[in-house]
Design goal:
By secondary structure, the chain is of the alpha/beta class. It contains 6 helices and 4 strands; from the N terminus they run αααβαβαββα. It is about 45% helix and about 10% strand. It has a 4-stranded parallel sheet, with helices on one face. Helix 5 links the parallel strand 2 and strand 3. The model has no long low-confidence stretch (mean pLDDT about 80).
Length: about 150
């Protein structure tokens, strides 16, 4: 049985990751998801939103995401979208991810791209499943009770 303060049960990184996953699953609206994540995780946590297209990237940036991951964008589209985002939201960090290899890495270089992720750093490595999804409902309910409910009552 889960009891007590979640910050005593889970390390901050795990709690932040769970909040991000659950908000993405349960709250498809970026505005609410980003705002709620900032409330749960605090101002010092960077909120990264994985975006599959330009519309999602614009919505995530407008919602206040700190990092926009442009996932599986072709280099030409990446340049265009990253340039727009940097002009409209100068403080947002842009990450290129998906399909980037050591051979294609230089194709993703851009003054508007801050981070480039290489899947080869993790692909092929053995995995360890430490999923907490079986306890998701209990933890989520405790999170709502201990963190979100007091904020709503104010």
């Amino acid at each position: 049985e889960m009891s007590g303060d979640l910050s005593q049960i889970l390390p901050p990184q795990a709690l932040a990751q769970l909040a991000r996953e659950w908000l993405r699953e349960d709250v498809p609206n970026f505005d609410l998801a980003v705002a709620d994540t900032h409330v749960v995780c605090g101002f010092s946590t960077k909120i990264e939103v994985e975006c599959r297209n330009e519309a999602e990237a614009k919505e995530a940036a407008k919602a206040g995401a700190d990092v926009i991951m442009l996932d599986n964008f072709k280099p030409e589209e990446l340049y265009r979208v990253a340039q727009f985002l940097k002009l409209e939201f100068p403080s947002v960090l842009i990450e290129a991810s998906g399909g980037v290899t050591t051979e294609t890495l230089t194709q993703y270089f851009s003054a508007n791209v801050d981070i480039i992720s290489l899947g080869c750093l993790t692909q092929g490595c053995p995995i360890a499943d430490f999923s907490l999804k079986e306890k998701k409902l209990q933890i989520y309910m405790a999170l709502c009770e201990k963190v979100i409910a007091p904020l709503v009552k104010k």
